[in-house]
């Protein structure tokens, strides 16, 4: 920890969330800008958040039958061209290698934007019989998408993620797996990130290039904009046919498999920051916080203070609580501001009077409430407080979404709703062109489908028969 790091004022979060975000992610030591435009360096404090997400999901994936593997980051250009929609969807974002080893390459190489094509190629070699199915693998890796407009964690040219890829014997098995992984993401967002998400199927315009159906989770940010936080794709037989993934079924016939893919990325860190942050900085849910409790000695020059602080820290560490002692030369006020900026869920203040009374002062990051705790059974008291903070952060975020989602019946009402930093719910015909025109006219687009429409419902924009009801918002 840098002892003399300046705790600067932040842009008003209620006036300009985007600028506040830009201010806080670097000042809170989550990341820094890389030397190549559009890239970022994830610093240890930010990377540990990703490690907690990864640890949680890795367990859940393995419960679902997935095994971890790793596939090459270089993909022959011909692989990408096998699936027409896929290549068209990713063409503007791909990074291409044309020169290597001192010479021009005979075939261009794509730096993976996603791995459906190369994993499909390998699956076609490995799968021969129905006994080989389902084949479910996941890889933790980096991908490259050459974005024009970037923002650290939310949208960068290179980012970390996981991508799961499955081959199933039947359509039902594949669809069931697609929904199952969506539920894993929803559970993770709620239990780990304390984020209530909008979830459901994407519209034709918003689905993944080459997919039959895409399902997603969307985080609602403080300014009413939505952030796609994870996706699960039912790919049908599109990629199986392009990669020639066949298996000999029980009836003795060769059949194409049904494939799915699913992924989340370091974008989740940006979602946490923009959902839970406030005017003092970021707020981290205890389950992903690198430091769950920071201890600030008060009057540490006085006899016995540091000794008792170290004893307290040891007790908490032994109880499995992630703790840090800030015994730097900075003032207590500076330390309070700094740790609030970094989002540490709980601050403990221990000084001569506390030691004499057998207590410690606890300050919650989520509510700023001060609580005097007995040092007797302090481990269980801290664990209970951290659990309470985790739940309260979810409850506050849930109430925000519930109170800021409104039904609208006209495009004008939709625009007014979005301008008031809220999410709109409206019926739509489902036509890609109609939705593209809506976005061109207003900057608003669908996020996920809520339900199917009945015969009486009309599209909010064109007036034709509605196909479904969906959430609409501007996106990051």
Commentary on this structure:
There is one protein chain. With 476 residues, the protein is of the alpha+beta class. 35% of the residues lie in helices and 28% in strands. It is built from 14 helices and 23 strands. It has helices at 17-27, 44-63, 77-80, 84-90, 116-126, 171-191, 238-243, 267-276, 305-318, 332-341, 352-357, 378-403, 411-419, 432-442; strands at 31-33, 40-42, 67-68, 74-76, 95-100, 103-111, 135-144, 158-168, 197-201, 213-220, 226-236, 246-248, 254-256, 258-265, 293-297, 323-325, 346-350, 359-364, 370-374, 405-407, 423-428, 445-452, 468-473. The chain has a seven-stranded mixed β-sheet with strand order 3-7-8-14-11-10-9, sandwiched between helices. A five-stranded mixed β-sheet has the order 16-15-17-18-19, with helices on both faces. Strand 5 (95-100) and strand 6 form a beta hairpin. Helix 2 (44-63) packs across helix 6 (171-191). The chain is globular, with a radius of gyration of 25 Å. The two termini are 32 Å apart.
How many strand elements?
23
Order of strands across the widest beta sheet?
3-7-8-14-11-10-9
* Strand residues, percent: 25-35%
The tally of helices reads 14
Outline the low-pLDDT stretches.
Answer: 1-7
- Secondary-structure-based class equals alpha+beta
Summarize the biggest pleated sheet: 7 strands, mixed
Could you outline the blueprint of secondary structure elements for this entry?
Elements: H1 17-27, E1 31-33, E2 40-42, H2 44-63, E3 67-68, E4 74-76, H3 77-80, H4 84-90, E5 95-100, E6 103-111, H5 116-126, E7 135-144, E8 158-168, H6 171-191, E9 197-201, E10 213-220, E11 226-236, H7 238-243, E12 246-248, E13 254-256, E14 258-265, H8 267-276, E15 293-297, H9 305-318, E16 323-325, H10 332-341, E17 346-350, H11 352-357, E18 359-364, E19 370-374, H12 378-403, E20 405-407, H13 411-419, E21 423-428, H14 432-442, E22 445-452, E23 468-473
Parallel strand pairs: 3-7, 15-16, 15-17, 20-21
Antiparallel strand pairs: 1-2, 4-6, 5-6, 7-8, 8-14, 9-10, 10-11, 11-14, 12-13, 17-18, 18-19, 21-23, 22-23
Helix pairs in contact: 2-6
